[in-house]
Amino acid sequence: MAVTTLAQTLQQEHQDIDAAFAAFKAAPAGDAPAAAAMRAALAALRRHIYVEETMLFPPMRQGSAFAAIFVMLREHGQMWPLLDELDTLLDAGAPTPRTAALRTELEQLLAPHNDKEEKIVYSLADAAHAGASGETMLAFLASGAMPAGWACERARAQRGTG
Predict the structure, then answer these.
(1) What is the pTM of this model?
(2) Residue 102 contacts residue 85 (beta carbons within 8 Å)
(3) Overall number of domains in the chain
(4) Which of 20, 31, 138, 159 is in Cβ range 3.0-4.6 Å of 41 for a Cys bridge?
(5) 13: containing domain
(6) Is the dihedral of CA 86, 71, 138, 145 positive or negative?
(7) CA 134, CA 144: separation in Å to the nearest integer?
(8) Measuring CA to CA, which residue among 102, 61, 81, 82 is closest to residue 156?
């Protein structure tokens, strides 16, 4: 049985989210199953950011990954309002040109973000989270839920909610 590392699990989440975005893009406008899958992908991306910001990044912020973590947090803050607006548009049900534009903008942010994250942050993740913290994160990634209403660090700062 293959051992799945924290870095591999986080990278697989990137791939799963990317696949859902691609399926939504390829689906005919107004395709309800594709829209539902896209909403699920947006929720998965929010949860992924939650895991990174609350579990993965904190112990790594003090070491050699400080600058990379700073960039990741900034980019999460750039993505968050796009996620909010996409959720609103998808919940409304009718596809709009704005929906496609937001998806494209989010993809354009995610591609280089994920590449940097995988090459820099995830390459250090397994060592930074050896033992119990890594096991805790893997368990959460398997079945944990993000707290309702949670927002990334930069979004909270922009909203003035800490």
Answers:
(1) 0.93
(2) yes
(3) 1
(4) 20
(5) 6-159
(6) negative
(7) 14
(8) 81
